[in-house]
């Protein structure tokens, strides 16, 4: 019996832990400090929850994500109601420059319905890498952990969710375990192994007791490290031998309101410890969505928002009916792609600017459906590797890498044409290529991927991608309204993530000039850009695409001190109307620059 069928026979206690109204109730913020001593005796954790905001999901030390400890759907939205994702993972594939004639050069690894990674890090890199023999945990911290008490509402709900019981059944020991684990993970945070931290003494290294765990001012952070050196796991996944990839996974969330309260952020950091270059490498954020009941899902993509998403195939869903809610929608969004050399480019890496590179965008979207001609790559067989490499490159997951099967538009004005972005229509307006219409498949159990590449992964090098998993629902609306809410949230998250795909805003002297955030943002059809000068300067104001290329120069010339406002109407320098998406505007004044990000939603 499949994992999804088994779910129907299990207790629904985990889904009944708390109602949405309880989650949105007042929080206990008593400022009671807990000592950092007496902590390190906690046992190593292999699984934990991200549950600081309006969603909840399980994470595991070996890289498994969204599955609960019983291998059932572990991502619920709104928190405490119905499931929205069954499982997620990262897949990589490329040509490994390994001279061993007994090993195929094309290899695929990562996590889907089976997990090809194991907890721990690679201790000795090289052609014959050696993993650590130490037990590796998954670590979870909260920046406000010292203010939590046994009677804190968040501790009670956390303990209920972790133990799969009703809040009334939570024991004092369950609550104490939550507090002890937060304290232990704060004290034992493995910053020296790659876990993120604030370098408070600015010396570029982790100093326990001085530096603090965390990143990006997140309220809750979870970190684990895994690798692909177990041949039984990699063969069981898609028949490939191990490559020698170490993967550090950081997941974080916020509880401060706004769109990011309905999202989690996840950074996959990959280190090539194989001793070999990997050519033509691709990365994919893979998802098996279950919007309530898994048998009636549809998927789509929005390239302008760098997203793939899932929604219900009809106005109601049995799982959500139990909570008097319409079905939700959920998306994976590429916030930061892998980097690739580009003269004059500017990329983001480790939340810092890296010149001479760009972050690759989504280069294709793929989907599969259980029991259909577009099936999943075969598990436990090298044909699965071949199918995945086609999928990563924007084709259907067939096993012939020479005679590929492209995706075709199944509905809309471009029906029958080849595309790397199928199902990119708008389900809300009913226009374009929409899943479940025309020759597309009927609602069923779906999977989807958002893919990026190719790039060359040098031996010893590090790559990272950052995704957001965002959910949306309109309690008083319909299942299609959930898509509209979802896309608005994605637009806000993309607009406010870090400093943008172009790069970090340059360090400038504030006394020289000021560039304000455009308003409105997101916008349609036009937006206002304001800047001020404190002295006379030669000024250029440019509109850039996501790769940092000039689309249009709004102003160029000498300006006197004062305040200025310019309008961008979504038209490029050739008079063409640009589409929805992420854009940037750059102000240059006497050689100093500042860049900000904006979203156009047609």
Brief overview:
It is built from eight helices and 32 strands. The chain has about 600 residues and is mainly beta.
What does it look like?
This protein has 602 residues and is mainly beta. 13% of the residues lie in helices and 35% in strands. It is built from 8 helices and 32 strands. The strands form 9 sheets. Strands 6, 9, 12, 13, 14, 16, 17, 18 and 25 form a 9-stranded antiparallel sheet that branches. Strands 3, 4, 5, 15, 21 and 24 form a 6-stranded antiparallel sheet that branches. The protein is globular and about 65 Å long. The model is unreliable at 5-41 and 499-510 (pLDDT under 50).
Overall residue-averaged pLDDT value? 89
Q: Count of DSSP E strands?
A: 32
Radius of gyration: 24 Å
Main β-sheet: number of strands, strand sense, barrel status? 9 strands, antiparallel
Question: Which spans have pLDDT < 50 for at least 5 consecutive residues?
Answer: 5-41, 499-510
Task: Please work out how many helical segments DSSP would assign.
Answer: 8
The level of helicity is: 10-25%
Shape: globular
Structure classification: mainly beta
């Amino acid at each position: 019996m499949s994992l999804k069928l088994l779910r129907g026979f299990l207790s629904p206690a985990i889904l009944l832990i708390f109602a949405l109204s309880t989650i949105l109730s007042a929080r206990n913020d008593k400022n009671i400090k807990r000592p950092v001593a007496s902590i390190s005796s906690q046992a190593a954790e292999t699984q934990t929850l991200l549950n600081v905001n309006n969603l909840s999901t399980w994470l595991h030390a070996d890289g498994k994500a969204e599955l609960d400890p019983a291998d059932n759907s572990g991502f619920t939205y709104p928190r405490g109601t119905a499931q929205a994702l069954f499982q997620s993972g990262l897949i990589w594939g490329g040509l490994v420059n390994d001279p061993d004639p007994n090993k195929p050069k094309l290899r695929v690894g990562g996590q889907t319905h089976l997990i090809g990674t194991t907890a721990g890090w690679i201790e000795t890199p090289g052609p014959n890498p050696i993993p650590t023999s130490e037990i590796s945990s998954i670590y979870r911290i909260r920046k406000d952990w010292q203010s939590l008490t046994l009677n804190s509402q968040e501790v009670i709900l956390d303990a209920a969710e972790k133990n799969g019981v009703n809040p009334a059944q939570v024991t004092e020991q369950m609550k104490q375990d939550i507090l002890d684990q937060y304290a232990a993970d704060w004290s034992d945070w493995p910053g020296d192994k790659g876990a993120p931290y604030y370098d408070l003494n600015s010396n570029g290294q982790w100093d326990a007791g001085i530096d603090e765990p965390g990143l990006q001012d997140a309220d809750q952070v979870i970190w684990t490290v895994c690798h692909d050196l177990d041949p039984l796991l990699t063969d069981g996944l898609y028949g490939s031998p191990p490559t020698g990839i170490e993967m550090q996974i950081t997941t974080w969330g916020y509880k401060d309101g706004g769109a990011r309260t309905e999202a989690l952020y996840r950074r996959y950091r990959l280190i090539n410890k194989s001793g070999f270059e990997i050519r033509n490498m691709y990365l994919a954020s893979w998802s098996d969505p279950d919007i309530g009941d898994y048998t009636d899902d549809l998927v789509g993509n929005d390239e302008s928002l760098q997203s793939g998403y899932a929604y219900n195939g009809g106005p109601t869903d049995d799982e959500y009916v139990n909570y008097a809610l319409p079905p939700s929608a959920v998306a994976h969004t590429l916030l930061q792609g892998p980097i690739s050399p580009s003269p004059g480019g500017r990329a983001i890496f480790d939340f810092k600017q890296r010149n001479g590179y760009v972050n690759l965008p989504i280069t294709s979207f793929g989907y599969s459906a259980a029991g259909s001609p577009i099936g999943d790559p075969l598990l436990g067989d090298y044909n699965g590797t071949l199918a995945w490499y086609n999928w990563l490159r924007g084709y259907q997951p067939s096993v012939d890498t020479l005679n590929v099967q492209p995706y075709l538009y199944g509905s809309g004005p471009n029906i029958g044409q080849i595309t790397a972005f199928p199902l990119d229509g708008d389900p809300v307006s009913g226009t374009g290529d929409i899943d479940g219409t025309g020759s597309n498949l009927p609602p069923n159990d779906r999977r989807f991927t958002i893919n990026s590449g190719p790039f060359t992964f040098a031996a010893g090098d590090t790559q990272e991608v950052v995704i957001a998993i965002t959910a949306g629902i309109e309690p008083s609306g319909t299942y299609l309204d959930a898509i509209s809410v979802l896309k608005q949230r994605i637009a806000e998250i993309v607009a406010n993530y870090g400093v943008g795909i172009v790069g970090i805003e340059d360090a400038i002297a504030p006394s020289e000039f000021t560039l304000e955030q455009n308003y409105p943002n997101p916008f349609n059809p036009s937006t206002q850009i304001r800047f001020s000068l404190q002295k006379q300067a030669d000024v250029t104001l440019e509109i850039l695409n996501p790769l940092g290329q000039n689309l249009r120069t709004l102003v160029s010339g000498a300006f006197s001190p004062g305040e200025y406002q310019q309008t961008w109407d979504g038209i490029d320098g050739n008079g063409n109307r640009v589409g929805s998406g992420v854009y940037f505007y750059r102000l240059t004044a006497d050689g100093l620059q500042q860049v900000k990000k904006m979203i156009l939603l047609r």
